[in-house]
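User: Please predict structures.

Assistant: First:
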Amino acid sequence: MIKGIGIDIIELDRIKNSIEANTRFVDRILTKNEKDLFNQLENHHRKVEFLAGRFAAKEAFAKAAGTGIGKLSFRHIEVLRGVNGAPIITALGYETYRSFISITHSRDYAVAQVVLEVAEL
């Protein structure tokens, strides 16, 4: 049974400006595992896309959960790569739920959509 659906869109320039204005911004958004992936990226634009995608994914997850960011923090939610390279999303306190995620980028935006499903017993 579907618990919720969330979607978020973010401007890449907004993320780029946040990275440049606040050295702690990346640490506020990414978990340690995500930051390891982020630091492996050599291209600055790709880093902006990566961070924007994670930001949008976490906002979308919080919307699907019905809490919004606040009760869930950005660092309670983690987006990694599955075995085939597609993103997988998990969150503290939502281990019994199944989640489905899609992230996309354009020249100016990153968009993520999350479907959160209550696992059948």
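Second:
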Amino acid sequence: MPKAAFPNKILPYLLLAPQVLVTLVFFYWPASQALYQSVLKEDAFGLKTEFVGLSNFSAILSNPNYLSSLQTTLIFSVSTALLAMAPALLLATAAEKVVRGKGFYRTLMIWPYAVAPAVAGLLWLFMFNPTMGTFAYMLRAYGVAWDPLLKGDQAMLLVVVAAAWKQISYNFLFFVAALQSIPRSLVEAAAIDGAGSTKRFWTIVFPLIAPTSFFLLVVNTVYAFFDTFGIIDAVTAGGPARATETLVYKVYIDGFVNLDLGGSAAQSVILMAIVIALTAIQFRYVERKVHYA
């Protein structure tokens, strides 16, 4: 295979420079600062610092509130990833069967992804507000004592649904692209052999879109850990009674509200390590079941 040749040897570096600069400024520099601050104890104004080693980490890992937030994060991330991927795959499969107006339906499905996380959270909070929400009124009409402002399990359900709804459109795009790449001859041959639609999906379609599903599993896991801060802040603010306080939201509370800069930095380092470990586990074990054509 011939290699790409650039007439100017500096051109490749100039093309890469913007992305490298963005990565250095917005990822590596904050990460290095978090690592540095995690071993320090600072006052609220940053006027006095003291090197404390790993004491911030030991204090965090022995804190019951942090362990509770870790459990909440695991439940929230798994629920959000599954709830965001399963309906997206179902909708993508249904959209492929539409004959007329296929592009129109796809456009409608993509729109929710353009909504900002905080706005998405406010939309769902308004719909399910226990005092004025339309859907809250309907739930009460069916005898459901709905009050996510006081009940932790209902608050968790609300933020999971809001976060998953925001991500469904993203997953839908990738699933549609994956379904379009499947040769129609394979599906038609299975239909001629007598395989039903369900059997065709699980034996032919799903294995062929496994790489896309694995990619989305990793992306949705990272999304649930990091990018759902705006939704949680808008809907529940971590409450009630820390029921929806995930790790990323606890970093914000301890760092910007309680002004524990060293402890907050240590929490961000632990959070980054957890996400890296989860991603590595997914690539180590889940990817074994993925078949790349």
